[in-house]
Amino acid sequence: MKRGPSNYTGAICAMISIAVLVGIWELSGKVGWKYLQIFPPPSHFLADLADNGFRIGLGSQAAGIPSSILSSFFRVFVGLGIGFISALCAGTAISISIWVKRFVMPIVELLAPIAPIAWIPLALVIFGIGNQTAIFIVFMGVFFMLTIATVKAIETVPEYLINIAKTLGARKWQIWTQVIFPYILPQVFTILRLNFIAAWMAVLAAEMTGLRDGLGAIIMNGRNLFDNNLILLGMCLIGISGFIIDALLKYIQKKFFWWDVQRM
Amino acid sequence: MRAQDKKTKQGSLEGNSIGFSREDGGQHLLEIIRDTSLALHNGEFKTIIGPSGCGKTTLLSILSGLLRPDRGTVLLNGIEMGEITKRVGLPTPSDVGVVFQDYGLFPWRTVEKNVAFGLEMVKTPKNIIEKKVSDILARVGLTEFSKHYPHQLSGGMKQRTSIARVLATDAEFLLMDEPFSALDFQTRYFMQEFLLEIWKKFDKTIIYVTHHMDEAIMLSDTIYLMTARPGKIIEEMKIDLPRPRSIIDPKFVEYRNHIALHLEREVKNNSVFCLEHL
């Protein structure tokens, strides 16, 4: 489970490579690069941000940076959570009953390829401008894929493991809670992590098009105000936040769903 | 614990003229087991030997209650298997435990939690589970590994854990499906000794499936010879050798030759029968 010193080596290399990138970016500002206006270096937009008291926007509509980040985080995590649990339920129902499978699976497979971004206009009409819209979009972005992944994962549970549980006295529902769910959770959670990126982008797109707050809104604010400092700041924050969420999901996986059933 | 183990039991597990077929993709029925009878009484160690794919695993599944035979009956302590499972509302009777070749350990559970599985399923109080699990782990020599996860164990220790798990349920009958065939020669040898020790210490009744002649003669009181397609027990052979046994004992060799000859004759009568594993 532990990879030892290589963990640190990786982290140090990552920091060096990012530092070099930022350094070149800053340096190109110093030597008078002609795209400086649309590509302000970190020292510019950070100074600009400090001047505004770490708030973004004009007057009463201004929102603090932490609240922007938190509202995006909140939307993604609530959407992922609801999507994860509903997909497990749907996948279970489909696996238990052949009739549910015959009727529901085609719908799931039909809706799965629709990009979550495509749901934005409809969601805005149904839920209006607010958290519900964003959560709905994240949900749509992960639910169908996760349902399919759950059904497929349940099919991979080896029969001998279920037989073992039966001979040890497990009843039907105990086989689900004690064997099948633990067996599939790591796989389904991995799919969740892979789908997170799509959900994350969908939230940002929703924030750019409809919602007034969140990280996506920072960029739109910048565009409306012709403030490239704001755009670059938004982009940096999105990059860092996405990285942090992915790290959080990896941490959750390691902490709660660490077992690798393939190796058994 | 000891006193309870020593008490005389009179259990029996019998299969009477069992037949089993499975659909073969299309309309054809594939006959897997034909008219096979065997009986297992308290304290016995019996082995079924036959080539891979001759229906040994199916036969064990039928004896454990996981599968229902198409023909014939399975009686546990004189009562029909189907009736027992219906009465207790469990998929298989609690008096029968199974050990598979693939260990079947739950990778998300530690050794002690794996051993506790059967007890947890029937809602045993926590303190009793703890006591029982630590007692059994001590008796099979796994105490220091109780907090380990299966992926941290060697093959031999994994199989020991899965045997401990069955012991924890107090099942009298242990059905073992080639439990040591994934292990290397050395480990296999130690595990055979370990199993004989467990058999005596816990006063269990064992039916053991293998395709290894030496293993069968080394372990059991009685060997059933089974043929392939459809699987059928064709001979019951008593092994009359004191334990511990040695493979260079002339009598051991005699038994071995007898089995080999008998199976070879089967090959001549039945072209599908394969000897590659013998």
How would you explain this protein's 3D organization?
The complex is a heterodimer of chains A (264) and B (278). Helices cover 76% and strands 2% of the residues of chain A. Chain A is an all-alpha fold and 264 residues long. Chain A has a two-stranded antiparallel sheet with strand order 1-2. In chain A, a hairpin with a 6-residue loop joins strand 1 and strand 2 (63-64). Chain A is elongated, with a radius of gyration of 23 Å. The relative contact order of chain A is 0.12. Helices cover 38% and strands 24% of the residues of chain B. Chain B is built from 9 helices and 10 strands. In chain B, strands 6-7-8-3-9-10 form a 6-stranded mixed beta sheet, with helices on both faces. Mean pLDDT of chain B is 85; it is low at 1-8 and 271-278. Chain A binds chain B through residues 158, 160-161, 163-171, 174, 178-179, 182, 259-261, 263-264, and chain B through 61, 64-66, 89-92, 94, 96-98, 100, 102-108, 117-118, 120-122, 149-151, 165-166, 169.
